[in-house]
Write a structure and sequence with these properties.
The chain has about 160 residues and is of the alpha+beta class. About 35% of the residues lie in helices and about 15% in strands. A hairpin with a 6-residue loop joins strand 2 and strand 3. It comes from Devosia elaeis.
C-alpha cells in the first residue's frame, strides 16, 4: 500500500459510489490504473465490501443498546455455539469477545424498549448466560464507518 492507495481508500470510505474516473482525478491517476488499484485492494481483502449506510431512525431501529454478557463457559465449543446463536439475531449489529470483567459485548439496534425486551427473552431462551447487562444509548455523539488510515503501513513510494 502506498500514499495513493491510502487516498483512494479515504475517498471510498466517504463515498463508495464515487466514479473511478473522479477518484483517479483526485489522486492523480487515470481511470485504468486507479481501477486496477481498487481491484487489487479488493482481491487482497483491504476492501471487504461496499455498502450503503442507512439512517437507523428512518428504518425504525433508532434505539441502540450495548449489551454486556458474562458467562461461566470459557471453551471453544460454547463460544462457537454462542456465536451461532447471535448470528440468528439481525438486531445484533456488532459482537465482540472482550478482555476484562465482561466476556462479550454486543451493539443491538431496535425500535424501542419493548422490542429490546423481546430480543432479550429470545436470547436467554437460546443460550445460558451468567449475567446480562444492558445500557441504552441516550444519544449518539460520534459514529463513523471510516477507519483511520494514518496507521496503515505505507511502502516508500518515492523509489
Amino acid at each position: 500500500m502506498d500514499k495513493i492507495d491510502r487516498k483512494i481508500l479515504s475517498l471510498l470510505q466517504r463515498d463508495a459510489t464515487m466514479p473511478v474516473a473522479e477518484i483517479g482525478r483526485k489522486v492523480g491517476l487515470s481511470t485504468t490504473p486507479c481501477w486496477r488499484r481498487i481491484q487489487k485492494m479488493e482481491e487482497d481483502g483491504v476492501i471487504q465490501r461496499r455498502v450503503a449506510v442507512l439512517d437507523p431512525a428512518k428504518v425504525n431501529v433508532g434505539v441502540t443498546v450495548f449489551v454486556s454478557v458474562k458467562t461461566n463457559e470459557h471453551n471453544e465449543a460454547w463460544m462457537r455455539k454462542f456465536s451461532g446463536v447471535i448470528d440468528e439475531f439481525p438486531e445484533v449489529v456488532e459482537f465482540y469477545r472482550m478482555s476484562g470483567d465482561v466476556d462479550y459485548l454486543m451493539r443491538v439496534v431496535v425500535p424501542d424498549i419493548g422490542a429490546y425486551d423481546t430480543f432479550y427473552k429470545r436470547l436467554i431462551s437460546k443460550i445460558n448466560l451468567t449475567d446480562v447487562s444492558s445500557a441504552f444509548a441516550m444519544g449518539q455523539i460520534k459514529y463513523t464507518t471510516a477507519l483511520p488510515l494514518d496507521f496503515a503501513i505505507v511502502v516508500d513510494d518515492d523509489k
